[in-house]
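FORM 7B: Structural annotation worksheet

SECTION A. Query
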Amino acid sequence: MSIVVRNAEFSDVNGLAALMHNYIVDFYGKAWPGDRTVRQLIHTLLEKQEGIQFVALQDGELVGFATLYFTYSTMKAERITVMNDLFVMEAYKDTVAESQLFLACQRYTHDLGFARMSWITAKDNAKAQVFFDKMGGVQGDWVNYSIG
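SECTION B. Predicted structure
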């Protein structure tokens, strides 16, 4: 039972869209943005200009994904990555699949010379917070807001 983590490829679009549906609708209980919109996002990320996605596979089946977006930090005056998503199917939580996806994002950030990687998680997602603490993450001093 070996897990493979790699960059998402064009052949992953259908499986990745299904995983993203599970993540958005089933896990977070949010409205589905639509197949066309999600597939456009995946294709944009495959170009690796605005971000990148990684996938975790078990015996050829997608079981998780992570998304990094590229942006800048004014405080550092450098480019940073934002890990917007880290999701594995329930059976793969607290497994090598989850940690390897995180580490792939961390390696990519380091290897491409980004200043740092940041991320957020829901206030009530205690399981994710335990995982991020275990991976060496440090909660920041900023309070996150959104509108719209």
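SECTION C. Observations
The chain has a mean pLDDT of 92. The chain has four helices and five strands.

SECTION D. Sign-off
Analyst initials: ____
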